[in-house]
Amino acid sequence: MFFPWLALVLGLCLGSFYTVCVHRYLTGGSIVNPASHCPACGHRLRPWENIPLLSFFLLRGRCRACGAAISWRYPALEALSGGSTMALALAFGPSFAFIFLMVVTGIMLVASAIDWETFLLPDIFTYPLALLGVAAPLFLPLSWTDSLLGAGLGAGLLWGVRAVYFRWRGVEGLGLGDVKLMVGLGALVGVSRLPLVVLLASLLALAVFVLCIARTHRSQGLATAIPFGPFLCAGTWIVLIAGDWLAHIGLG
Length: 252
Ligand SMILES: [Zn+2]
Prior knowledge:
Structural class: mainly alpha
Oligomer: single chain
Number of domains: 2
Low-confidence stretches: none
Bound molecules: zinc ion
C-alpha cells in the first residue's frame, strides 16, 4: 500500500535530477556543480523553488527573480519519471526487478529527452543501456537466448531499415544511435516481444507525427521530423510493464 507512493516521490525526485542531467548535457555544464540555478539570470534556487513538479506550479512556470519562462518540458519529465516509477512499483513490488527497471527507465527518459531536442542518442546512454539489457535475464523472467537474439535482431532490423531508407531517399532517416539503442532495448524485451515493441513504437510515433503536422503545417509545410528513439523507448517500456497483459489480450 505504502510502497507505490514512496516510489512516486522517489520518481519525482529522480525526475528532477534527470532534468538537470538533460539541461546540463545540452548546455555543456556539470551535473553536480554549481547548485541549481535559473539558466536565464543565474538566480540560485531556494529549496522550496526546487521541489519536483510542485515548484513549477507554485512559481507559475516563471523564475521568481527575472520572470523568465521555465520550459514545460522540465515538469513533464518529472511527471513522467514519477508516474513511471509508481507504475513499476505497482507492477513489480519491492524487488530487484523494480530497482533494475527504475535505472533502465531513468536512462531511457534522459536519452529520449536529449534525442527529442537534438536528434542525437549519445553513446554514454546507449552503451550502458546495452550492458543493462544483456544483464536483464538476471532480473526479469527472460531467457538468455531470448535476450541475446532480441539484441542482435533488434539492432539488425533497425540497421536494415536505416540502410534501405538511405538508399531510397539519400538522407539518413534513422541515426546510428537508434541502432545502438535497439541493442539494449531488444535485449530487455527479448526476441519474442520485439515485433510488439516495433509495432507500439511505430503507432506512437505516427500518432505524434500526425499531431505535430496538425499543429505546424500552416507555418512550416510538411517538413516535420521527429526522432524515433523516444518511441522505441516508450514501446519497450510498455512491453516491459504490460507485456503479459498485451499477450493475454492477443497482441504479441
Ligand atoms: Zn531567472
